[in-house]
Specification:
This protein is an alpha+beta fold. The chain folds into 3 domains: 1-33 and 366-402; 35-186 and 283-365, f41 fragment of flagellin, N-terminal domain, CATH 1.20.1330.10; 188-281, no CATH class. It has helices at 5-32, 43-97, 104-125, 178-183, 286-298, 304-364, 368-393; strands at 146-149, 152-155, 163-167, 170-173, 185-186, 192-196, 205-206, 210-211, 222-225, 231-236, 241-242, 248-249, 255-258, 261-266, 275-280, 283-284. Helix 1 packs antiparallel against helix 7 (368-393). The chain is elongated.
Length: 402
Amino acid sequence: MRISTRQLQQTAINGIIDRQGALSKTQQQMATGKRVLTPADDPVAATRIHAFKESIGILEQYQANADQVKNRLSAEEGVVKGVVDTIQRVRELAVAGANGALSDVGRQSIAKEVYTRLESLLGAANSVDANGEYLFGGNRGDTTPFTVTSGGYVYNGDDGQRRLQVGPDFYIPNGDAGSDVFMRIRNGNKVFSTEYNPANTGNGTIDGGRVADIAAYTSHDYTISFPAAGQVLVTDDTLGAPVAGFPKPYVPGQEIVFDGAAVTIDGSPTVGVDSFSVKPSSSQDIFTTVKRLADALNQSSTLPADKAKAEMEITRAIDELDNALDHFVNVSASIGSRLNSVDGQVFMNEDTVLNLKKVMSSLEDLDYAEAVGKLNLQMVGMQAAQQVYLKAQGLSLFEFMR
């Protein structure tokens, strides 16, 4: 078979180019530290590497979500801690204001600080996170959660909780709605609450009461009145009838027990005029609790009836501030629990990413010792191919016709 000079040269050149390509690829592998540069290098390994990278990317997004959750919950935790400190201070002021020997001026001085603390609570409830979104607005992070109107304190957010995925099948709320944190605090003794009639003219007072028999408690509305001198009547407003056994003799300071509830009335209520109510406990916002306390401390109590009402308001506020403290401690515990859960998931995610990268490294990373030996052989082969080409250049017949 005849082999032309051109064919011989082309074959030599192709050999050089092939060796140069192999040498270049080895140099690129050594520069990047990667054995698999394209799927063609190892199709099976390339497929697995792609799957590992996808899994690592998803886990890294989980970690980013976890950081966001931790930042927001940590900010909320700090606000709640400040609220607890404020409520504790307000309770101390309430106890100081309950001192019967304190003058109106002294109570009004205390009221000034309580009003200031109330503003502090409202500011805390309208706190924003690092992104400028309101912490306690639910899903309405761009709306001021709490505003003051003539009718009281209004929540403008919603009850939603944003949930972020921080792990496979693990979603966690990254905040709490302000309605749950600041508005839904049980009043009274958490089972029922007592209240005086604003029209009362006597100096009678009622305490917060207690549950004497939970099995007998009806959750009905009741009115306690004084139809005649030395008598007390308990009426079941839900049924529209007096409670069995009433009216009874009224003894100041003696406990009145009816349908599983027990309350104590002291002082001298005005017969036929004064009354008190007993109703199932309901939700009350912390702002209203503190506002009622401040107003009670701030009013003048020249009349016996006014003094009695102020005393009941202050006593009631102390009980409800205790309820609020319990509530906010539970909120804080919930936040701490979520933060601990996120920390645990972050650790698991980091461990999984580390293992995936380790396996991926075994498939993808270059063995430098092997690569150096391969590079040396390729360089020798390249030099040999170049020498062969040079020798082949001298085999033309024209070289012998000079």
